Amino acid sequence: MKVGAFSAEFLRLKEKEKRLTRRLRNGNIIGVYEMCGIGKTTLVKEVARLARQDKLFDHDEKKILIVLDNVWKHVYLDTVGIPFRDDHKDVNYC
């Protein structure tokens, strides 16, 4: 990979990181998907780290962050204990 290509990819991922963090601050449910090997897990780990650092989620306040990684089949959130109501229809994807 050329240095310029690496820099462009890094900037693209940093921009996605900012968008994801902004959406989390707004209380949105977010889905992240792309082809394999693009850095989704690394991106989400960094966003989760930033969320913990900024104290965006607090179990006592009933505002928690759940990360599902390496999911290859459809997941019905309510069957794994995550309530999914009509007000959650606007799931954001990156």
UniProtKB/TrEMBL annotation:
UniProt superkingdom: Eukaryota
Record SUPFAM superfamilies: P-loop containing nucleoside triphosphate hydrolases
InterPro entries recorded: P-loop_NTPase
Protein name, as recorded: NB-ARC domain-containing protein
Upper taxonomic lineage: Eukaryota, Viridiplantae, Streptophyta, Embryophyta, Tracheophyta
